[in-house]
Amino acid sequence: MAAVKRESALDGGWGWMIVVASFMAQFLSFGSPQSVGVLYPEWLNAFQEGKGMTAWVGSMVSGVALITSPVCSACVDNFGARPVTIFSGVMVAGGLMLSAFAPNVSFLIFSYGIVVGMGCGLVYAATLTITCQYFDKRRGLALGIVTTGTSVGGFIYATLQNELIELFGLEGCLLIIGALALNLMACAGPMRPLNLPGYYLKQRAALQRTEEPEPLYTKPTAIIIDSGSDLKTKPGSAENPTTMKLLITKEPTELQDSDGERKVHILSSSIIARAIKKWMRPYGQYFCETVELLQDRVFMAFCITMFLFSLGAFPPVLFMEDVAQSEGLIDGIALIPLVSIVAMTTGIGKLILGVLADMRWVNSLYLYALTLIGSGTALLLIPVSKSYLGLQILSAAVGFFSGNWSLTSYITTKIVGIERLGQAHGILMCFGGFGIALGPPVVGWFFDWTQSYDLAFYFSGTCVLVSGVFLFLAALPCWNRTTQEGNSQAEADVNTSQQQHSFDCDKVASVA
User: Under a CB-based contact definition with an 8 Å cutoff, are residues 45 and 230 in contact?
Assistant: First the structure.
């Protein structure tokens, strides 16, 4: 695996090929999960389960993709984006095709929710990590384009899956979509690493050690006892005829321990203990680094915000079509489903917000908080709307503000630095994954309990609105009046945005 020099690859050149490949990878992997709202009514009719139970399928596919982000990020750090993307193509395609033969909802939760979800998580971690590595000054724009792939995929796949269901049925639709997902392996081709991943560095070090093998035999030290009973060590003095020689072959380390020989079982126990300690050392280091990240006030506030936002903002994507049908506003699914409107406006929002984040006078953290407040307000208005046109407008608003997903990696990089992006992004997405996994089932249970979506959407809107207000308050400059020299540069930049509007990733990385 050839690596490219970092300095010559930033902000252009082959980086735009990385953007195109990452865009297509997210398009192919997230197209079906983002438009799962089209499949949701079909699964309700096919399996006759409750809405809360069936909603686990759609929530698990996105929830697992984010919950497994720490593992996925570790895979990218160790093996690189290219092998991880190839493997994810097999998982996504296999899970979709396996879902075509699902006998019940429980099987769908495994095949579509877990298998496809883990594949999507691998793609998400690989594409975002390699894009951040290739871009610095234009990182916001590049991430905006890449993450638009999920929105474009959701927009096209919503209509495509609807047509495929009409032509070939639900099973044929999933088989065709799974076959399309195999093209993920082709998207992995252009993903050349800037630096060799950790696994290849270890392999190279192992090869270098084998090229210079250690001697299999060490010449023993001769212990010579002469007539004067004086102990002295003379390597190679065994040929001296004037002394009485008693040769005792011992290892040099054993000679240093003059108290006696250790027992065999004690020695073996120490070897096992050292092996376990060596095996556990990376996990202990990872845990300590995770605790250190969570002690950062801004990053911890960002994690809590991500959980609340994911808990409330994802259910509309899954339930919007069912809301229109339950209220009698439309029969069946429209030519351009509400899910497609959400996906289309989400893509527009990602591009616009990504461009805004690159502007020096814009504080990306405050921009993210404002999008949360706007999204929460739109969700609270959905139960009030009693027309299909109103639902279309509110769906567009929710979609546009949900484009703030393009800012997550950007803000994370500013907080912790590019060197710790993989680990920090994995932790952040894990918080978001739990929110996405819990959101749709909770909304579905609200409907099963009240036979109305009103209370459910009030709950969702409140969660998103609270998350925006919480993040805005947590990032206020008044919290840093007693900022000490050891505080992170990211906190200082976030809380003193009027003094400095851009972050220096190299200075941020030095905090780690």
Answer: no
For 292, the enclosing helix (H) or strand (E) is helix 264-294
Query: pLDDT for 222-276, tens place per residue?
Result: 444 444 444 444 444 445 544 444 444 444 444 444 455 555 556 556 667 666 7
Contacts of residue 397, defined as CB under 8 A and 6 or more positions apart, other chains included, come to 345, 374, 375, 378
Q: How far is 284 from 70, CA to CA, in rounded Å?
A: 15
* Model-wide pTM > 0.70: no
Q: CA–CA separation, 143 vs 403, rounded Å?
A: 11
Measured CA to CA in angstroms, residue 430 lies from 67, 152, 298, 444, 506 at distances of 4, 24, 17, 22, 26
How many whole angstroms from its chain centre is CA 184? 18
pLDDT greater than 60 at residue 318? yes
66: exposed, middle or buried (Cβ count in 10 Å: 0-12, 13-18, 19+): buried
Q: Record the tokens describing residue 134, joined without a space.
A: 């290739």
* Res. 480: pLDDT tops 60: no
Nearest to 92 by CA among 150, 148, 25: 25
* Residues contacting 226, CB < 8 A, separation 6+: 232, 243, 244
CA 403 to chain centre: 17
DSSP 227: T
- What angle in degrees, to the nearest 10, is found between the helix axes of 36-47 and 139-181? 30
Q: Work out the angle between the directed axes of helices 69-79 and 51-67 (0-180°, nearest 10).
A: 30
> How far is 17 from 9, CA to CA, in rounded Å?
11
Pick the closest to residue 432 from 463, 461, 462 (CA basis).
463
Give the separation between CA 119 and CA 188, rounded to whole angstroms. Answer: 14
Q: What is the DSSP string of 426-443?
A: HHHHHHHHHHHHHHHHHH
For 157, 275, 341, 439, the CA distances from 328, given in Å and listed in that order, are 25, 66, 19, 24
